Every structure is written in C-alpha cells, then in structure tokens.
Amino acid sequence: MALEWVVLGYAAGAEAIMLLLLTVPGLDGLRKGLIAVTRNLLKPFMSVVPFCLFLLMDIYWKYETRPSCDDESCTPSEYLRHQKSIMKSQRNALLIAAALIFYWLLYSVTSLVVKIEQLNQRLERLKNRD
C-alpha cells in the first residue's frame, strides 16, 4: 500500500521541479527544450488525477470503516494507533492535494509560456515586415 504513495510523491515532486524550472527567470536557452518536454509529459501526468481520486476514495473508506476509539473504551496503545492512523490519512490527503494543484499549475503555466512564445514570434514577424 505504501508504494502508491511513493509513486504519487515522486509524481508531485517531478511536477514541482518542472514548474520551478519553467518559472525561474534567466533560463531562456533551456526553456524551449523544457517546454517541449513538459508538453509531452502533460498527457502521461494526467493519469495522476484519477489515481488521486482513487486514493482519496481509499482514505474515505478507511475513515468510515475505522473503529471508533473513545477515551475510555480503548487501551493507550490502541489510542496511539488510532491517532497515528488519523495523522497518516491527513498527510496522504495533503499529498493528494499537492499533486493535483501542482498538475493544474504545471498545465496553466505551460499553456501561458507557449502563448507568450507565440506572441513573441508574432511580434518578431511584425517587426521584420515593417
């Protein structure tokens, strides 16, 4: 079960790194190649969205079927296990949210950078025509 969280963490990390490289100023020579790589990776990274929804349903199912642990009804070790389970669920929910937000930001930034490149090319053509 931990492997899927590792995969999601690596995907979110890769999205964050690509987003950082696209938005850092001064990488104009590297940017064209990075835009091409990012545009080609957006479709495979789209699989993160249904994967996140599946993991979110898994967290919800675990939350709904988790045994209730009131203060006096369980031992201290059971209470600690219950609290650890809640903390893991919250951490995993944050990872899901981060992966989805990074994908959306990467998609938006990539489309904006492509539009800027197209407008710059159009501006160059208009300057050359005059």
TrEMBL record:
It comes from the Eukaryota. It is a multi-pass membrane protein. It is found in: Endoplasmic reticulum membrane. Keywords: Endoplasmic reticulum, ER-Golgi transport, Membrane, Protein transport, Transmembrane, Transmembrane helix, Transport. InterPro entries: BAP29/BAP31 (IPR008417). GO terms for cellular component: endoplasmic reticulum membrane. The chain crosses the membrane at residues 6-24, 45-63, 93-114. One of its GO terms (biological process) is intracellular protein transport. The keyword Protein transport applies. Belongs to the BCAP29/BCAP31 family. May play a role in anterograde transport of membrane proteins from the endoplasmic reticulum to the Golgi. This is Endoplasmic reticulum transmembrane protein. It comes from Hibiscus syriacus.
